[in-house]
Specification:
2 copies of one chain form a homodimer. Chain A is 23% helix and 24% strand. By secondary structure, the first copy, chain A, is of the alpha+beta class. The first copy, chain A, binds a DNA duplex through residues 141-143, 158-161, 163-165, 168, 180-190, 206-209, 211-212.
Chain lengths: 214, 214
DNA sequence: GCAAAAGTGTTGTGTCTACACCCATGT
DNA sequence: ACATGGGTGTAGACACAACACTTTTGC
């Protein structure tokens, strides 16, 4: 579960109350019940931490099967990437907390690699899909969105070019509203929203496109 | 397992000798043994059909957990995409055969969707990685490679532009050899090879690139 | 010479980055 | 007026598609 908080990409971690790795931070999750879907299971286990309605996007990352990944028993795990929009601040149990992905504590099992793989997936998809909808609140200005993209990507993003790319692709659209400037003044910012609340690929076929017509 | 044969993308299918779906075509696979890696398991089960050394690329597609995917019992399956280079023609058991992906017979379980998802993954990766290495023989001319790309992508590909794209990216390189023309004449074709026999992303950051310097 | 196949030259287009400049507001 | 932040205009770089043209062979 990733979210941008305080301008940084953070991961939701749970301090293990069980062996193995008792007391070590780990990703939330749990065992799959018979007859259950993986996604149902994830949502169920997350419900103990976060209101499920707050999860804007959930996608499968990878299934891990290295026999050494659990020191005690042979175990298979399927990792998921979940995204929560900036701004929502769910009540968390005492043993659960957000941690910046850029400064993770020691994590149990292979959870560090999983977390970093999730960040990579997010970064890649920011480039060719509308996945930003799952990081952003319902309404936002371009500079707010710029800050979200910069936090997720790990480098500066130009508001100018971000706006043009996303508008041209039809990923975001103006609401018509404007936001009042802060104390220092400044031109009121136009308010935007994402066009779709579902993942869509917006930049298919970078190359080797099918021939135009003829 | 996909391969281009006779200029068409084909999938390796097994005619089931067991219930459920007895007699229906299905993807090769089998149960995971305790202590085994998913990839080990796949390779082991494939070994009954194809020499494993012929599999040039193997990657995880997705783990499926819909409780209705098996009519009899609750079952989880992890699908893999495997690629075999054109030209190798493994001995197959009598109950196993190649079928064009564009004209699949009725398939057991959700194997039709898995197969089509594999084709989509291949098509996407042809655009931004060097995955062609797993479809092509060790040496080839540009027009041979063009035919492979066209078969996999399902549309015409220009040899001119394919050559330039792959050379610019350093995906393929000339061997220095040339191939003698056929009976009808023609200029001898330069022989190329892929630079790397492992998957590499060659077209990262289509957009929202990090700032140049400063 | 002519057909066939491979390969190069070249032009045009679309998408992106970078940066200069203009706009609207608060103090 | 001027600082602050938002937004537009525009030029340049680059990668790609399309197609004309040239090269090298067999017959």
């Amino acid at each position: 579960m990733l979210q941008i908080r305080d301008g940084t990409l953070q991961a939701l971690l749970w301090k293990r109350a069980r062996e193995p790795f008792l007391g070590t931070w780990s990703l939330p999750g749990g065992y799959l019940e018979p007859g259950e879907t993986l996604e149902q299971s994830i949502r169920k286990h997350l419900a103990a931490k976060v209101d499920v309605r707050e999860v804007a996007h959930l996608e499968q990352l990878e299934t891990l099967s290295d026999p050494d990944r659990d020191p005690r028993e042979w175990q298979i795990a399927t990792a998921y990437l979940g995204l929560v929009p900036t701004g929502v601040d769910p009540e968390l149990p005492a043993d659960t907390a957000w941690h910046p992905v850029s400064a993770l504590p020691e994590l149990a099992f292979d959870h560090r690699e999983i977390t970093l793989a999730g960040r990579e997936r997010l970064r890649a998809k920011l480039s060719y899909t509308n996945i930003g909808f799952a990081l952003a609140p319902a309404q936002f200005t371009i500079s707010e969105l710029r800050d979200l993209y910069a936090a997720a990507l790990g480098h500066d993003v130009s508001a100018t070019n971000l706006q043009r790319v996303l508008l041209r692709r039809g990923v975001i659209e103006a609401t018509g509203e404007r936001r009042a400037p802060g104390r220092g003044g400044g031109r009121p910012a136009a308010v935007f929203r994402f066009h779709s609340p579902r993942l869509e690929v917006t930049d298919e076929f970078a190359v080797l496109r099918p021939p135009s017509n003829k």
